């Protein structure tokens, strides 16, 4: 069988399953981006808050999850989560080991890491919002929530777009490590295809190329989004 | 979760025994990567169309694809070919440690090359012109004018990159090099005490990172004497507020 048959879409080909795996990689990365967005917003708020314990907790979070190796965090979530699930199972009279679903474990683990980076992105974006606008909003009588909704969030989202693009690329690469939990994403699928056909070189090259496609395409998407968003800045009042 | 000091301590001892392996991976791959990066930067900056095209392609491929797949490609992929197995390089490519170092170095070279290029671009043209006007050229110009400014500019990004490399050495455990993360994973599956082992391992990584950050800050301080305040002497006491640089 020639190599083109192996990666093609025929009966023996792995093309279809690799494309499916690419979708799984995108899904786990997107899920982790959402989890990370929620975590990142909370942690950024903690880091910017006036209370010292909250600031300390926020700093501790970003230090740990940016300082520890990604693989170690995946082990923490996968093994730790499975232990917790097993403990709950024992409590419900189920004997034996219960595993955390690998998609959930992967998304949470990459989400924890992404949350630490997103917190820094949001914090920077908050600091880029002009103080004058906040003062103006306060002076016409907007309350905290209204200020958040009308002044802060729209601008923070725009300012954080380039940073979020970087976080997305990081998460896309971190998602390869989720393969250790057995989730059939692109890395794991390339590995299985390589092992079962003994064509290691071929399938790792193909896997790598498909990752390049993903990173290049997402780069395009984020550049497009940034240009779209930049429109609202160019003619903005008080900005040049 | 019971707080078990004895267990934490024994975990710490076991993980610390793996620290030399992590540091060896880190030191070898960062220095080898820096050498590769110098070559790539040279191709990119002063090479012709062909060489700079190669440098661009290199950076695109190694920054755009994940490190794990690069490592597996080198460790499992190259060994597939009889030609490689019978070649001079087989002792190197058979060994998990050298494969891990090679993969880490090739990957970081892509990132380091971009950082070095950024540093070079930040050297003001007028500084180079001034150097030329003073009669410097070639290596002397590079050593006295270009390199000091470029290194100073690139240093903050460079420290970020090497901190990321400390974390990246963890992937070597997936090609059976027993460094800190691999050892931690083994301890977790033996004892099922995930949280404790994770905390101890993280503490070790944070300590390593902290030391590297301090060292890099020291280097940065040494390389930028012109940005510091002039030491105050008794006769010129009133100059503290002066802005330098």
The CATH architecture of chain B is Orthogonal Bundle
CATH topology type of chain A: MetI-like fold
Q: Domains counted in the coordinates of chain A: how many?
A: 1
**Radius of gyration of chain B from CA coordinates:** 23 Å
Structural class of chain A: mainly alpha
Number of strands of chain B: 0
**Mean pLDDT score of chain B:** 89
SSE ordering of chain A: HHHHHHHHHH
Number of domains of chain B: 1
User: Mean pLDDT of chain A, nearest integer?
Assistant: 90
- Overall shape of chain A: it is flat
* Biggest sheet record of chain B: none
Can you put this structure into words, describing what you see?
The complex is a heterodimer of chains A (240) and B (245). Chain A is mostly helical. Chain A has a single domain, classed as MetI-like (MetI-like fold, Orthogonal Bundle). Chain A has helices spanning 3-7, 15-48, 52-67, 70-91, 102-128, 131-139, 144-159, 161-174, 186-197, 200-234. In chain A, 38% of the residues are buried. Chain B is mainly alpha-helical. Chain B has one domain: MetI-like (MetI-like fold, Orthogonal Bundle). Chain B is 75% helix and 0% strand. In chain B, helix 3 crosses helix 7, helix 4 crosses helix 7 (96-121) and helix 10 packs antiparallel against helix 11 (194-223). Chain B starts with a helix and ends in a 22-residue tail after the last helix.
């Amino acid at each position: 069988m020639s190599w083109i048959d192996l990666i093609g879409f025929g009966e023996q080909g792995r093309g279809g399953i690799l494309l499916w795996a690419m979708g799984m990689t995108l899904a786990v990365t997107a899920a982790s981006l959402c989890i990370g967005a929620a975590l990142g917003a909370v942690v950024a708020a903690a880091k910017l808050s006036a209370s010292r314990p909250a600031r300390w907790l926020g700093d501790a979070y970003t230090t740990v999850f940016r300082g520890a190796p990604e693989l170690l965090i995946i082990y923490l979530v996968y093994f730790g989560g499975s232990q917790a699930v097993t403990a709950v199972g024992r409590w419900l009279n189920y004997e034996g080991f219960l595993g955390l679903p690998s998609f959930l474990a992967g998304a949470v683990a990459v989400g924890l890491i992404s949350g630490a980076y997103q917190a820094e992105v949001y914090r920077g974006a908050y600091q880029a919002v002009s103080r004058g606008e906040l003062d103006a909003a306060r002076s016409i009588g907007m309350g905290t929530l209204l200020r958040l909704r009308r002044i802060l969030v729209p601008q923070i989202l725009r300012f954080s777009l380039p940073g979020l693009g970087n976080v997305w690329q990081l998460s896309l690469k971190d998602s390869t490590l989720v393969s250790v939990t057995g989730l059939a994403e692109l890395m794991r699928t390339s590995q299985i295809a390589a092992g079962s056909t003994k064509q290691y070189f071929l399938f790792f090259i193909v896997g790598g190329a498909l990752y390049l496609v993903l990173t290049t395409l997402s780069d395009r998407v984020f550049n497009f989004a940034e240009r779209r968003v930049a429109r609202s800045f160019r003619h903005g009042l008080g900005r040049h | 979760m019971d707080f078990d000091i004895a267990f934490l301590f024994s975990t710490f001892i076991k993980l610390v025994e793996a620290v030399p392996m992590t540091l060896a991976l880190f030191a070898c791959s960062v220095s080898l990567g820096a050498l590769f990066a110098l070559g790539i930067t040279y191709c990119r900056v002063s090479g012709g169309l062909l060489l700079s095209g190669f440098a661009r392609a290199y950076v695109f491929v190694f920054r755009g694809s994940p490190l794990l797949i690069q490592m597996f490609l080198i460790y499992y992929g190259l060994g597939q070919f009889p030609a490689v197995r019978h070649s001079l390089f087989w002792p190197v490519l058979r060994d998990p440690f050298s494969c891990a170092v090679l993969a880490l170095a090739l990957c970081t070279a892509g990132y380091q090359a971009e950082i070095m290029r950024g540093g070079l671009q930040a050297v003001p043209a007028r500084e180079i012109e001034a150097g030329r006007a003073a009669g410097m050229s070639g290596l002397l110009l590079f050593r006295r004018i270009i390199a000091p400014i470029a290194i100073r500019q690139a240093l903050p990004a460079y420290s970020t990159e090497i901190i990321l490399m400390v974390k990246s050495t963890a992937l070597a455990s997936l090609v059976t090099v027993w460094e800190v993360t691999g050892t931690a994973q083994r301890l977790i599956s033996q004892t099922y005490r995930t949280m404790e082992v994770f905390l101890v391992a993280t503490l070790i990584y944070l300590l390593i990172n902290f030391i590297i950050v301090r060292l890099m800050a020291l280097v940065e301080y040494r390389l930028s004497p012109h940005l510091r305040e002039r030491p105050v002497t008794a006769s010129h006491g009133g100059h503290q507020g002066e802005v330098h640089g």
